[in-house]
Amino acid sequence: MEMDAPVGENALDAEQIVGKPLDRIDGRLKVTGGARYAYETQQDALYGFVVEASIAKGRIVSIETLEAERSPGVKLILTYRDAPKQGTGNHREAHPVLTGPVVSRYGEPVAFVVAETFEQARAAAFLVNIEYDRDRGHYALPDHLDLARVPHQPDGAPADSEIGSFSDAYANAPEQIDVSYSTPLQSHAMMEPHATLAMWDGDKLILHTANQMLNQGQRAVARTLNIPVGNVRLVSPFIGGGFGGKLWVNADAILAAIASRYLKRPVKVALTRQQIFHVTTHRSDTIQRIRLGAGRDGRITAIGHDVFSGNLPTEQVYEAAALQTRSLYAGPNRLTRHRLVPLDVPIASSMRAPGEAVGLLALECAMDELAEKLKLDPIELRIRNEPAEDPEKHIPYSSRHLVACMQEGVRRFGWDKRNSIPGQVRDGQWLVGMGMSAGTRGNPLRFSRANVRLDPDGIATVKMAMTDIGTGTYTILAQIAAEMLGLPIEKVRVDLGDTIFPEAAGSGGSFGAGSSGSALFEACQALREKLAGRAGMDPNTARFGNGHIATGERSVSLTELVGSGVEADGEIEPGLNNQDFSQQSYGAHFAEVGVDRDTGEVRLRRMLGVFAAGRVLNAKTARSQAIGGMVFGVGAALHEDLVLDPRFGYFVNHDLAEYHVPVHADIPPGIEAIFLPELDERSNPLKSKGIGELGICGAGAAIANAIYNACGARIRNYPITLDKVLASLPKQA
Questions:
Q1: Cα–Cα distance, 252 to 534 (Å, whole number)
Q2: Cα 726–Cα 732–Cα 733 angle in degrees, nearest 5
Q3: Nearest Cα to 197, choosing from 210, 208, 213?
Q4: 342: cis peptide before it, omega within 30°?
Q5: I need a surface site. Which of 95, 120, 223, 580 has the fewest CB within 10 A?
Q6: Counting beta carbons within 10 angstroms of the beta carbon of residue 44, is it exposed (0 to 12), middle (13 to 18) or buried (19 or more)?
Q7: Residue 407: which H helix or E strand, with range?
Q8: pLDDT tens-place string over residues 710-731
C-alpha cells in the first residue's frame, strides 16, 4: 500500500485493544532475565577486544604484537597488515576497519585481539605496542569555522533554503533579535553497550548484534565484507537502548565477523563503556545564529537560522538544526543555512531527534527573547505566528494542533500565575520561574513488510525484521494484530529482530511504530479478506471479535476456517500524502525551576508536556516515551557536555562517571506527559504519528526560559551549569 489518500474508517477505529495502557508483553522476560541480548546469546565463543588509536591524526610507524601473541589464551591479533580488503562508503553504507596505517580519529580501531576469555583478550590488548607519527589536526568546531562548507545529502532535505528576501525584511523590521546559541558534543549513553556475536555457517554469516535497523545493517555488512546480502543474517530481538547510536553498523560487528571467519569459531565482542565514546558515533556540537524580525504587533516578518556543525572530512552528515525553523512559524521572508566543518574527530551522526533536539534549544529561546522585547506573553507570540500552511513548502499540514497543546498546557500548568518580570518570585533561598516552548518533530514513513499467520490453535504469529529498543514495539504490534483479527492479545505472538523475517524500517527517526505497524495493518487486512472469503462473508462488513468472524446473526470461529494455517503479507511505503502534506508531530513544554540565589544551582520543580501525535497506540508506552524524551531534554539543558580536548582531539569525560546525564534525584515527581485526542488520516493506516523523539524537542528550551524567568540569567551556551548561572546572576538577586 502507498499512502496516496486518506485512509478513512478502518478496523482500528474500534479501539478495543489499540490505545489501551497495556503492560509490555515482553516485560516479564526482561525483568526475569529471560530476554537474551546480543552478548548473551552464546557462551562458548571466543572473546574480542578492540585496541584503539591513541592519537587523533597521523600514521602507524610500527606495530609490535609478538608479546601479545604469546599471552595466555590468545588466538588471533588482527591489524591492517592481515585484515581483508573491504568495501567502502560513508558510515551509513559501510564500516571498513583496519584498512591501513593512516589514523583519522582518536579511538579508531588499530588492532583486534581474540582470546579464550575476555580477561585474556583485554590483557593482551595492552601488550600491543604501537608507535605513531602524529600529524596536526582540526578538532574544535569554534576554531575552524573558516573551513566550513555546504554539506550535501542526496537523500535528505537541502542544506539551505530561502523564501522571499530575508536581508531586506530583517533590516526593515521594527523589532529585531540577533542571538547566537551553542550546544555541546553529546553521547548517546545507552545502557547496553555495542556488542556482537559473529559466527559463520559455510559462506553464510550470522551476526547477533545490537542494531536498530537490521535490513540497513545487513546491506552495510555485506558491502563492507564484499559478500552477497543474502549471505548475511542479522539477529537482534532485544536492544538495551540506542537513541540513534545503534542505527549504523559499528566496528564491533565487522571485527567480530572477520575474526570469526579466520578462526572458524564464534567470536563475541562488547565495547567497554569508555570505548563507546570514541569507537562509535556521537552528536556534533553546534553554533547557531537566530535572527528574528517582527512588527510591533508581534508578527514575524523575517526569520533566519544559521547552523555550524562538524564531522570527519569523509562524511556528509550534519546536524540539521534549522529544519524545524522552516515549518514551525509563519513569516514571509525566511533563510536557513547549514554549514559543515571538517574535523578530525570520531564520526558525528544521528542522536535522538537529530536536528530538532538542538535546533529548538536555540529557536525557542530566541522566541522567548523576542516575546520579552515585544512585551508579549510567549504563548501569545507563538499563536500570532501560527501558519495556515507550511510556510516554505506551501502545502497544507496533514494535521496540526500546536495551539491546542499550548492552550491545554496553560490550563493544566497554571501559566496564568507566571510573573513575566524575572527574579520576582521567591521560595526561601530559591528564585522561582516558569518557562515554556513549542515542540515539533517530523513524521516520516518508511517502506516495511510484515507477515501474519493464524494457526489451528487460534494463535496469530507476526513476523518482521523490526526491532524493539525498549520502546514497546512488541506490545503495540500485538495490539494492532489483536484488534484487527478480533483476538485477545494473549493469542498473538510477535517475532521480531531477524533479517530472515520480512524487511522492516527498524527503530529510528520516529518512523518505527508507524512504518512497522502499518505493514502489519495491511497484512492483517489481507488475512481478514482471506478468512472472510473462506466464511463466505463480505470482508467489508464482516465483524471480527472474540476469535470469531460474524455477519448478521451468523458467526463462525476463526479456528474452523484456518485448516492447517492461513497467512498473509502486507507492506507499506510512502506515497503522495508524504509529498502533498507537511507532516509533523507537535507539543508544548512547560517547566518550573528554582535557582539558588547564592550558588546558581538549578532545580527542576515540575514539568509538563502536552502532545498531539495522532492515534496513541498504547497509552502507557506512549507516556513513558514522552517522559523519557523530556528527561533527555533536561539532560541537554542542564547536564550533558562531552568535553573535547582541543589539543589532542579526544573526549576527556569518556565514561558515565563524568559524562553527566539526569538521575532520579534530578527529576521531580511532578513531571507529566499527556496526549490530546488526534487522528491523522494522511499519516498512515494507523492514523498515528511518531512519538519516540517528540518528547525531547523543545523540552530543554522550556527549562532555559524558566531559568531566565527565575533569575534573569539568559545563558546561550548549553548546558546551563551553575557556574554559568552564577556568573550571570543579577546583582539584586
A1: 50
A2: 45
A3: 208
A4: no
A5: 580
A6: exposed
A7: helix 402-413
A8: 999 999 999 999 999 999 887 6
- The verdict on whether 386 is a catalytic residue reads no
Which tens digit of pLDDT belongs to each residue from 302-321? 999 999 999 999 999 999 99
Q: How many CB atoms lie within 10 A of CB 104?
A: 19
Where do we find the cell 478468512? Answer: 531
Q: Could you read off the pLDDT of 380-433 as tens digits, one per residue?
A: 999 999 999 999 999 999 999 999 999 999 999 999 999 999 999 999 999 999
* Candidates 356, 369, 483, 693; catalytic one: 693
What is the amino acid identity at position 236? S
- The Cα–Cα gap between 172 and 301 comes to 9
Q: Which three cell numbers stand for residue 291?
A: 535572527
Determine the Cα–Cα distance for residues 225 and 85; give it in Å rounded to an integer.
8
Indicate the average pLDDT of the chain: 97
Q: Look-up: residue for cell 539532560? A: 635
How far is residue 105 from each of residues 30, 221, 279, 510, 648, measured CA to CA in Å?
37, 22, 9, 30, 10
Residue 692's φ and ψ, nearest 5 degrees, are -55, -30
The alpha carbon of residue 199 and the mean position of all alpha carbons in its chain are separated, in whole angstroms, by 29
Q: How many CB atoms lie under 10 A from the CB of residue 640?
A: 23
The full DSSP string for 450-507 is: EEEEE-TTS-EEEE-S---SSS-HHHHHHHHHHHHHT--GGGEEEE-SBTTSPP---S
Q: Pairing between strand 543-545 and 548-551?
A: antiparallel
Cα 52 to Cα 112: distance, rounded to the nearest angstrom: 9
C-alpha cell at 28: 516479564
Model confidence at 733, pLDDT cuts 50, 70, 90, reads very low
CA 403 remoteness from chain centre: 25
